């Protein structure tokens, strides 16, 4: 499967950026020409190396962040940043993927590909948040979990599955924000939330377009990769229609990387809206509604229903 390099991502941005020059007010709907971007163009924007990452949003949206390290079993994982902070004077728990930008940081963060110890570190924070009644905010940006032999030996599948189960039964408000790529179980382990917010140029799918093209056409070239991206319906408008996400978050003209401060302001306003709504819901209903939400997702492919059988869950 082809790797995405800084050079290729930069070249992709140079091709795509001219189509994104119209200004956009904070929180406003995307301008018409932005809505016409193809799926692969949005994937390229999601992969832009200058796009704001978890730490960028932590610095702009949260205060007094205390990072938690390690899983108390094997070690720490730089691909996951997790801890406690204040969001607009409200104590919260925060967990997010961090890809890194420089070569040294990318190696330290493993390009955002999380090991089992990273997911177990995230689970520590999930449990702390649930114990103390703190809202949980996650920031998703990964092509997928680390697929290496060492990760499998340390229980990668179990770690992801345990996080899915744990997030499903949390009795606190959970808000997931897709800020870049959301790939496979590596993303979903941070994504079982009451509210799933997605930036307009982010993407969310079970596999990368390159991986899909290599499987279906036995060749991952420019044409098949673009065709795969379109067929997978991995962009925000499609996912909103399918009921996979709950809200599309606008980005500054040209993408979030062109104005990180404005991107953070827009994202912060969306998080605040969701949080203000969810804190009014009682804990048991937060859990039940989250279970119903994810149980209904398969039905979206069969008929226009959010919940196939509302009485079957909770």
The N- to C-terminal Cα distance equals 42 Å
Amount of beta strand: 15-25%
- Give the total of beta strands: 8
Could you say what the CATH architecture is?
Answer: Alpha-Beta Complex
The average pLDDT score comes to: 87
CATH superfamily: 2-enoyl-CoA Hydratase, Chain A, domain 1
Q: Provide the CATH topology.
A: 2-enoyl-CoA Hydratase, Chain A, domain 1
Q: Strand-and-helix sequence, N→C? A: HHHHEEEHHEHHEHEEHHHEHH
Q: Which of globular, elongated, flat, extended, rod-shaped describes the shape?
A: globular
Indicate how many domains the architecture comprises.
1
Look at the helices and sheets and give the structural class: alpha/beta
Largest sheet: 8 strands, mixed
């Amino acid at each position: 499967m082809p790797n995405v390099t800084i050079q290729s991502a930069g070249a992709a941005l140079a091709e795509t950026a001219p189509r994104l020059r119209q200004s956009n007010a904070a929180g406003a709907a995307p301008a018409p020409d932005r809505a016409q971007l193809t799926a692969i163009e949005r994937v390229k924007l999601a992969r832009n190396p200058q796009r704001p990452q978890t730490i960028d949003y932590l610095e702009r949206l949260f205060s007094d962040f205390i990072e938690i390290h390690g899983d108390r079993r094997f070690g720490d994982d730089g691909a996951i940043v997790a801890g406690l902070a204040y969001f607009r004077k409200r104590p919260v728990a925060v967990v997010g993927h961090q890809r890194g930008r420089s070569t040294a940081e990318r190696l330290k963060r493993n390009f955002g590909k999380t090991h089992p110890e990273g997911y177990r570190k995230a689970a520590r924070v999930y449990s702390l948040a649930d114990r103390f009644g703190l809202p949980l905010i996650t920031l998703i940006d990964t092509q997928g979990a680390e697929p290496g032999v060492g990760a499998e030996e340390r229980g990668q599948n179990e770690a992801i599955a345990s996080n899915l189960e744990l997030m499903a039964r949390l009795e606190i408000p959970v808000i997931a924000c897709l800020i870049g790529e959301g790939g496979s179980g590596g993303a979903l382990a941070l994504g079982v939330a009451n509210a799933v917010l997605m930036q307009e140029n982010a993407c969310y799918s079970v596999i990368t377009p390159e991986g899909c093209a290599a499987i279906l056409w036995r060749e991952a070239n420019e044409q098949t990769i673009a065709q795969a991206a379109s067929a997978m319906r991995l962009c925000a408008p499609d996912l909103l229609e399918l009921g996979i996400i709950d809200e599309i978050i606008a980005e500054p003209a040209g993408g979030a990387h062109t104005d990180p401060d404005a991107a953070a302001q827009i994202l912060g306003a969306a998080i605040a809206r969701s949080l203000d709504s969810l804190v009014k819901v009682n804990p048991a209903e937060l859990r039940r509604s989250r279970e119903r939400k994810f149980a209904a997702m398969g039905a979206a492919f069969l008929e226009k229903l959010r919940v196939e059988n509302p009485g079957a869950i909770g």
